[in-house]
Design goal:
The chain has 78 residues and is of the alpha+beta class. 33% of the residues lie in helices and 13% in strands. The protein has one domain. The protein has two helices and three strands; from the N terminus they run H-E-E-H-E. The protein has a three-stranded antiparallel sheet, with no helix packed on it. Strand 1 and strand 2 form a beta hairpin. Helix 1 packs across helix 2.
Length: 78
């Protein structure tokens, strides 16, 4: 029997993938910065899923997602 992800988990994963794919990757600072607004991510999620879990949209535009020091918002253990 295959493992099935919950709908909320699938939405969070899709949102994170969309945000990281559209992020600015700065080579000199060795970091990735979010540049998509929340409204754009919400529109993307609404096109994929019927009911959107707003907890998947916890990343703001301009936020450091990943850096070489391990202090990016997507690198933090929750």
């Amino acid at each position: 029997m295959p493992h099935r992800r919950s709908p909320a988990s699938r939405q969070r994963r899709a949102a994170r993938r969309y945000i990281i794919n559209h992020a600015y990757h700065d080579r000199t600072q060795a970091e990735s910065v979010a540049r998509t607004p929340r409204k754009e991510v919400l529109t993307f999620l609404q096109s994929l899923f019927e009911g959107v879990d707003l907890s998947a949209l916890n990343i703001e535009q301009g936020e450091v997602l990943a850096d070489s020091r391990g202090r990016g918002s997507m690198q933090q253990v929750k």
